[in-house]
Inverse folding.
């Protein structure tokens, strides 16, 4: 992995209290020469900033266990660890993203737990250990709706109290929210982020249905 040098440097964004490296940053260029993420883990997507903005307004309690699904470069994981002292598990299907996650964690002086897994392999007991599960831009294909719905069902059945997903507003995301609303409490609302640029999308908050 490329040697880290301390900030400040060029080609760095500072958004929602954390440092984020741009594609043109020397470390990202060096990492991309060695690792080629293949499942869209090629940048920090706008939905991550939606998630940060929303959690800033609706924060979890300090020190909670948090899991980020489809973490990509791990910006949201770093945000939760930095702001809320969360014990974060960053999950992604693609092992090539984790060197990027590690660099983002290092420059922000936080520690994360990385886990390489697809949605179907995350067991109910593991999911239930996390009080909050988050994900940004993870339901972009129709074939992701079912495994995500089953994952959320397993998580809530095993004790997870809160799940927050963000998305630009794709049809599969709305389909997922619609299906989940039949068995859980689902709040869907338009949201926007203002750092580092304006980005508009949707936030879904899923909780167990009150009996």
């Amino acid at each position: 992995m490329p040697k880290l040098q301390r900030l400040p440097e060029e080609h760095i964004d500072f958004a929602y209290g954390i440092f984020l490296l741009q594609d043109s940053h020397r470390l990202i260029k060096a990492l991309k020469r060695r690792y080629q993420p293949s499942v869209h883990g090629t940048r920090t997507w706008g939905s991550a900033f939606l998630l940060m903005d929303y959690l800033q307004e609706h924060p979890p309690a300090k020190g909670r266990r948090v899991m980020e699904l489809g973490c990509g470069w791990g910006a949201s994981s770093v945000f939760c660890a930095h702001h809320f002292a969360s014990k974060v598990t960053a999950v992604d299907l693609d092992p090539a993203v984790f060197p990027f996650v590690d660099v983002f964690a290092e420059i922000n002086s936080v520690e994360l737990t990385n886990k390489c897994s697809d949605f179907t392999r995350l067991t109910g007991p593991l999911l239930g250990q996390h009080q909050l599960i988050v994900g940004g831009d993870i339901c972009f294909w129709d074939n992701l709706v079912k495994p995500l719905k089953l994952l959320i069902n397993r998580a809530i059945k095993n004790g997870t109290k809160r799940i927050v997903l963000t998305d630009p507003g794709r049809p599969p995301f709305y389909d997922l929210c619609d299906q989940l609303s039949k068995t859980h409490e689902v709040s869907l609302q338009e949201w926007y982020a203002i750092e580092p640029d304006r980005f508009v999308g949707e936030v879904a908050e899923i909780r167990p249905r009150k009996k």
Summary: The chain has one domain: 12-208. The first helix runs from residue 26 to 34. The mean pLDDT is 92. The radius of gyration is 16 Å.
